[in-house]
Design a protein that fits this description.
With 213 residues, the protein is of the alpha+beta class. The chain has a single domain, classed as Sandwich (Jelly Rolls), CATH 2.60.120. The protein has three helices and 13 strands, in the order E-E-H-E-H-E-E-H-E-E-E-E-E-E-E-E. A seven-stranded antiparallel beta sheet has the order 3-11-8-13-6-5-4. Strand 1 and strand 2 form a beta hairpin. The radius of gyration is 16 Å and the shape is globular. It starts with a strand and ends with a strand.
Length: 213
């Protein structure tokens, strides 16, 4: 069985076709699910162009580590620039992606029996030479982030770097290439990971499904 959503983008129809049982089973067994076949190429390219636009307009900021009063900018740990999405109707593409995430939130909550109440997302742009050292997506004091999602927007070829290195428990680390259009989701508290050094611009929509309001 699948769940799907059909939306209008320009003159074309977009159909999201996702095997929800496969996705849930993969998250249960591996804490990870990866797909290269969700989004049309033109849709991804439009979001990539928009990510470059907001960066050029100065609407991104250097990302921090920690939370609250403990937030710090430490370039030795991470070097990406981010822009939080507060207005999902700012572009047609963002509205479609937000609707897609809302359906995922409901589906994952039902399949995994997790009370997923909302999601948060930002554009993440890694300039050449940037990286993000090994970390986990849940803060020590609060563990409200339950599922992490990354949608890769920028073109990628071998040698560009920026791979997502995953550190599973009691297994060897492995890397996921940030190929344009690839969608990755994983259990936020289960998989430490890092972003390897980039040798070209690496842009994504990165977000989390949370169990708080």
């Amino acid at each position: 069985m699948t769940f799907w959503r059909r939306r209008i983008f320009g003159m074309n129809k977009i159909a999201f076709d996702i095997p929800k049982e496969e996705m849930a089973q993969s998250l249960i067994e591996r804490s990870l699910w990866v797909s290269d076949s969700i989004f049309p190429k033109g849709f991804t390219e439009s979001l990539y162009a928009y990510s470059l636009q907001i960066h050029e307009e100065g609407r991104t900021r250097t990302a921090s580590v920690g939370r609250g009063l403990q937030k710090q900018r430490i370039e030795e740990i991470r070097g990406d620039h981010i822009s939080w999405i507060n207005n999902w109707t700012e572009t047609p593409e963002l509205q479609i992606y937000g609707e897609f995430l809302e359906e995922m939130r409901q589906t994952l909550g039902q399949q995994l029996l997790i009370a997923l109440k909302r999601f948060e997302v930002h554009f993440a742009l890694y300039p050449e030479g940037a990286f993000y050292k090994k970390h986990i997506d849940q803060h020590k004091e609060t563990r409200h982030r339950q599922i992490s999602c990354v949608y890769y927007l920028s073109p990628w070829k071998e040698g560009n770097g920026g791979e997502l290195r995953i550190f599973p428990k009691e297994k060897a680390a492995f890397e996921i290439e940030p190929r344009q259009g690839r969608f990755v989701c994983f259990l936020s508290g289960e998989l430490p990971h890092e972003v390897l050094k980039t040798y070209a611009i690496r842009s994504s929509l990165t977000g989390w499904f949370r169990d708080d309001l």
